[in-house]
Write the structure tokens for this entry.
Amino acid sequence: MKNESQMSNKYPILSTINSPCDIKKLTQPELKSLAAEIRGFLVENVSKTGGHLASNLGVIELSIALHRVFDSPRDHIIWDVGHQSYVHKILTGRRERFATLRQGGGLSGFTSRDESEHDCFGAGHSSTSLSAALGFAEAEKLNGSDAYTVAVVGDGAYTGGMIHEALNNCERDLRLIIVINENEMSISKNTGRFARCLVKLRSKPGYFQTKLTTGRIIKRIPFVGRRLFELIRDTKKLLKNIMYGSNYFEDLGLYYLGPADGHDEEQVETLLREAKKLGESVILHIKTKKGKGYPPAEAEPLLYHNLPPASETPPGATYSTECGRILCSLAKADQRITAITAAMSYGTGLEAFRKACPERFFDVGIAEAHALTFAAGLAAAGKIPVVAIYSTFLQRGFDSIIHDIALQRLPVIMCIDRAGLNPADGVTHAGVFDVAFLSGLPGVRIYTPATFEALERALKEAVAAGCPCAVRYPAGGEDPRIIGEFYSGQPAGRHIVTGRSMPKDPEVVIVSHGRIAAEAVGACRILKNAGIKAGTVLLERLTPYDEIAAGLAEAISGKPRIIVFLEEEIRAGGMGILLSDAIRRQGYFNNSEHLIIALDNPFARQTSPRPIFEFFGIDAESVARKIMDS
């Protein structure tokens, strides 16, 4: 009761909004107050939980207008990526749970069909919304329904090819409204006094009503009405193109409205209502400002794009920043090295490379498949391209990896960032598939460094390798438990590193790679306390598996009862299955039992705030328990 009272005192209008129906009753002055309250609510909460703040501050008025004009969930509202859906969540009955945003068992940071009927299509990756919206709109047409489908697409998504593929496939006679939210990159050169007057004119209901009525009258003229209407429309388009230039969307046969001020709720609402009346596919182009209404976010939208939780200690050096630093150093010595990012120069640590070697840095936009084939072209022409990309986004370019890189044995280096589980961003951003889909490709080396020094060794080897290489590493920085067990006082430069505490004749050996090795170290301590002789082995490289199997046979003394393969990836096609098979085929450790501990269901969503490793049963305690039970 106390929290409810505080909420109503602080946010008197917002506290009364429990469904989209509630905002339909508000007056214009109340809507402006609601927008201000939502801004305060977002800043207060996202500053604590972490999340995408700047972009959500920019779509408050749009979100309000959408839910006043359309009838969700009967009408479908699809948010590209889904990171701009916070206001949508607040307005659709999830305000009281908003403090759980991006927490285990809490609200997703993106749209999720499992979370609400108002989230008609899940998201997390860019440029998918319009293809999905087109599917919804065509289905409703086949059903004879008059429901509308709305796709909200940020201008950045237009650097992704899927958007243009979907636009090319759009039929004119669909109840489909595509809202382009331009908040950074210019789309239209529609400038000048006449353009501003045109926007004002088009935002007035009288303009639309006159236009629609005139069109209906002309179409009803016997015999020639339809052709006369099309002639007038085409003539108008021709004159407009001569005077003001061609419009990409109208050239595709779509009705275009805008650009309009996306922070003027009344104007946006009017345009949406008129778009509904048209009864055909419509582009509504609005302009917004990231971080609107919160000066720090307006001044530094990149800084406030994706905030960490307030409770999280700011990291020092990370694998991403170290990768950028190492590549800069290597590029100074080798002019063939180039760097490529798919609109993620800051996230992948390549911003340092961009500044140091701008002529050899390429940002190709949200176009992962293009990035990889572009890299293949550079490699075929004698360069050494490095593509830095998140694991979850690498899968979007899998065909390019097979067809353009691996098949031609081209020396492309894939720096796979955010490898492993990423709990804050949920299942859509889990980097748990790359080992499986890369392991099946002949000639591709997979490096799995677990320290910054190992990362540097891997990158140096990859540059000199002359073949496709993948260097995968997690978010964040080094783990002192891994350094202490595998690198303190030990010689460096090996791909197979035996833990310092490995007994002479171990009963149990845990083989792992990457940051999950810290859990292997913890599990060994638990086993030793239970009287079981256990040790760990860390792999800095995974392929070729036959070679790694032979190395393990040399590194492990005696005849262990159990060899455990622990990994933070999917079981099917992963390191455990493939390395176990290589060991069996070559006749090593014939009397040893093999136990694979990996992810059986990577799509499982956390239902409680338990740590992510514990939730998936790959933490030290769970691993030790599974070994003792085997």
